[in-house]
Write a structure and sequence with these properties.
- The chain is an alpha+beta fold.
- Helices cover 48% and strands 8% of the residues.
- The protein has a five-stranded antiparallel beta sheet.
- Helix 1 (2-26) packs antiparallel against helix 4 (169-195), helix 2 packs antiparallel against helix 3 and helix 3 packs antiparallel against helix 4.
C-alpha cells in the first residue's frame, strides 16, 4: 500500500511540476520593467522567452515576437533549449509513468518491468526538474547582471533614462515547477524499490532411493577365463553352476538346444 501511495503521489507531484514548466515557458513575464525611481510610468514593458510586450496606462497592450534567432544572446537561447528539453522529458516521463502505475494492469506485465519503468520515469522527472531550475536560474542571473550594470550607468550619468528589468512572475513559477518535478522524480525512484520482487531462495533437498540399498561386489577374475568370476566366490542358495567344456570354458546353450 505504501509503495502504491508513493508512486501515485510521485506521479501527481510530477504532473504538477511539468504543467508548471509548460506554463512558465509560455508566460510573457520572465522579466518586468522596474518602476522604482522611474519617471516614465505611462508605459510598462515586460518580456518573455518568445516575445516582448508593452502595456500603456490606457490598458492597451501590444506584444511583438522575436523575429530572429541568431540575433538573440547565446544565454537566452540556452534558456529556451533547457526549458524545451525539460518539458519533452517530463511529458515522456508521464507517459511511461502511466503504464508503470501498480494500480493499472496491462496484459501480463510483471512487477519487474513496472519497477524498471518507474525508475526510468523517475529519472526523467529529475532531469526535467533540473533543466527547469537551471534555465530559470540562468535567466535570473542575466537579469541581475543587467540590472546592476544599468544601475551603475545611471549613477555615473552615462545615460539619463535607463530601463531596468527585474524578476517576473514566470521565474517563480519555473522555480516551483522545477522543484515539484524534482521531488516527484525522487518519490518515483523510492517507489521503484518496493516494486522489485524479492528473490526466491530455494533450499537444497536430498532424495533417497525408495528401495533397500544393495551393495554389489565383484569377485576375482582369472586370467584366460573369459572375464568370468570364480565360481567359488559366488554365494547363495540355489545357485547351479553351468556346464563347462573340456578346456574349462563355460558352455552356453545355443538356439539348437531348445528344438
Amino acid at each position: 500500500m505504501s509503495t502504491t501511495l508513493c508512486q501515485v503521489m510521485g506521479f501527481l507531484v510530477s504532473s504538477l511540476g511539468i504543467a508548471g514548466s509548460i506554463m512558465a515557458t509560455a508566460m510573457d513575464t520572465w522579466s518586468t520593467q522596474d518602476l522604482y525611481d522611474n519617471p516614465v510610468t505611462a508605459v510598462f514593458q515586460y518580456q518573455g522567452l518568445w516575445r516582448s510586450c508593452v502595456r500603456q496606462s490606457s490598458g492597451f497592450t501590444e506584444c511583438r515576437p522575436y523575429f530572429t534567432i541568431l540575433g538573440l544572446p547565446a544565454m537566452f537561447q540556452a534558456v529556451r533549449a533547457l526549458m524545451i528539453v525539460g518539458i519533452v522529458l517530463g511529458i515522456l516521463g508521464l507517459l511511461v509513468c502511466i503504464f508503470a502505475l501498480k494500480c493499472i494492469r496491462i496484459g501480463s506485465m510483471e512487477d519487474t518491468a513496472k519497477a524498471n519503468m518507474t525508475l526510468t520515469s523517475g529519472i526523467m522527472f529529475i532531469v526535467a526538474g533540473l533543466c527547469a531550475i537551471t534555465g530559470v536560474s540562468v535567466f535570473a542571473n542575466m537579469l541581475v547582471t543587467n540590472f546592476w550594470m544599468s544601475t551603475t550607468n545611471m549613477f555615473q550619468g552615462m545615460q539619463n533614462v535607463q530601463n531596468r528589468y527585474t524578476f517576473g512572475s514566470a521565474l517563480f513559477v519555473g522555480w516551483v515547477a522545477g522543484g515539484l518535478a524534482l521531488v516527484g522524480g525522487i518519490m518515483m525512484c523510492l517507489a521503484c524499490k518496493g516494486l522489485i520482487p524479492e528473490e526466491s531462495r530455494y533450499k537444497a533437498v536430498s532424495y533417497n532411493a525408495s528401495g533397500r540399498n544393495i551393495s554389489y561386489r565383484t569377485g576375482p577374475y582369472k586370467v584366460g577365463s573369459g572375464y568370468e568370476a570364480d565360481p567359488k566366490t559366488r554365494k547363495g542358495a540355489g545357485y547351479e553352476e553351468a556346464p563347462r567344456s573340456e578346456d574349462g570354458r563355460r558352455s552356453y546353450p545355443s538356439k539348437y538346444d531348445y528344438v
